[in-house]
Amino acid sequence: MKTISIAGRKIGEQYSPYIIAELSANHNGRLERALESIDMAKAMGADAVKIQTYTANTMTIDSENEDFQIKGGLWDGYNLYRLYKWAETPYEWHKPIFDYARKVGITLFSTPFDETAVDLLEDLNTPAYKIASFEAVDLPLIKYVAKTKKPLIISTGMANIEEISEAVETARENGCDELVLLHCISSYPAPIEQSNLRTIPDLGRRFNVVPGLSDHTMGTTVAIAGVALGACVIEKHVTLSRQDKGPDSEFSLEPEELRKLCQESKDAWMALGQESYMLKTAEQASLKHRRSIYVVEDLEIGDVLTTDNIRRIRPGHGLAPKYYDDVLGKKLVKAVKRGTPLSWDLFG
């Protein structure tokens, strides 16, 4: 079974789901809010917090050309540069953020969007990297990240089989031995009916990786269903409050929703267990309440067992119901009272 490890935490199908709280731009331009969000993620039970490392200038150019305008969706009316300027996590915040996460005891890593971001994150000794769906086709970036030889998580939103294969091949050829692929629908928020969660186990098998889910749907239902289908990593955007209207707040989990996700994803994983038809420990006490064959009339020695004087009823202290036809017509060798469980020694 494929496993990886991030900051000492093992990740794979035999371990509880690894929950990543994606802060993204929901710091709303305040370092203090970013640190408060780390506290919140830790308190709610997340395994890691993820940020994004870019500036508007490393993402795009400031242009009013039609190509750079956003039409429709949450960010309608922005050009790309203004959106990323609003949403960026300043480079000078990164060290305080990493230091604070280490202080409170939660893993923190980031999504780099260009080589300068990788260099910064290497200086901060990030334990892992994430490649965003939109950058899954940026093979030079994947190559640069893979050469750090750190665990790499790649979101597959929008990518077809060929593009995913190219990303995986690039990562492996350049030194990445610990690889996670996240099934993802790159829509914000994503429609539940287009989730196609059955892709999750196929990702794991097809590419021999640890599979997971980067979920942009509202709520936690899809993420929990993803765990049931084998997602070993769950990534969800989080915010202190959707009322604060950050760039990604509309499809982000609030604190109590994150707590629910962390708990219920672990519950779903525990419920998977293993293929087994053996009696479970919890069932032991219930055995006595199964059906069995009982005498339902007072009978004397020599009486014949009939459909009138024996029945298949609860509880289960008598002979199993499968012997019902076999015992009909048998003569009793002992007298019995109504309510006696039938046993082989009662008849000849």
What does this structure look like?
This protein is α/β, with parallel strands linked by helices. The protein has 2 domains: 7-54 and 89-272, Alpha-Beta Barrel (TIM Barrel), CATH 3.20.20.70; 281-346, Type Iii Antifreeze Protein Isoform Hplc 12, CATH 3.90.1210. 31% of the residues lie in helices and 16% in strands. It contains 11 helices and 12 strands. It has helices at 31-44, 56-59, 80-87, 91-104, 115-123, 139-146, 161-173, 199-207, 221-228, 255-272, 324-327, and strands at 3-6, 9-12, 18-22, 48-53, 107-112, 129-131, 152-155, 179-184, 210-215, 233-237, 292-295, 310-313. The strands form 3 sheets. It has an 8-stranded parallel sheet. The chain has a two-stranded antiparallel sheet with strand order 1-2. A two-stranded antiparallel ribbon has the order 11-12. Helix 1 runs parallel beside helix 4. The two termini are 56 Å apart. The model has no long low-confidence stretch (mean pLDDT 96).
CATH topology of the largest domain: TIM Barrel
The total of beta strands comes to 12
CATH architecture of the largest domain: Alpha-Beta Barrel
What's the number of helices?
11
Strand content: 15-25%
User: Roughly what is the average pLDDT, rounded to an integer?
Assistant: 96
Please give the largest β-sheet. 8 strands, parallel
Shape estimate: elongated
Number of spatially distinct domains: 2
CATH superfamily of the largest domain: Aldolase class I
Considering DSSP H and I runs of 4 or more, what fraction of the residues is helical?
A: 25-40%
Poorly predicted spans: none
Largest sheet strand order: 5-4-3-10-9-8-7-6
What is the class of the largest domain in the CATH system?
Answer: Alpha Beta
Order of helices and strands: EEEHEHHHEHEHEHEHEHEHEEH
Give the class from helix and strand content and strand pairing.
alpha/beta
Distance between the termini: 56 Å
Cα-atom Rg, whole angstroms? 30 Å
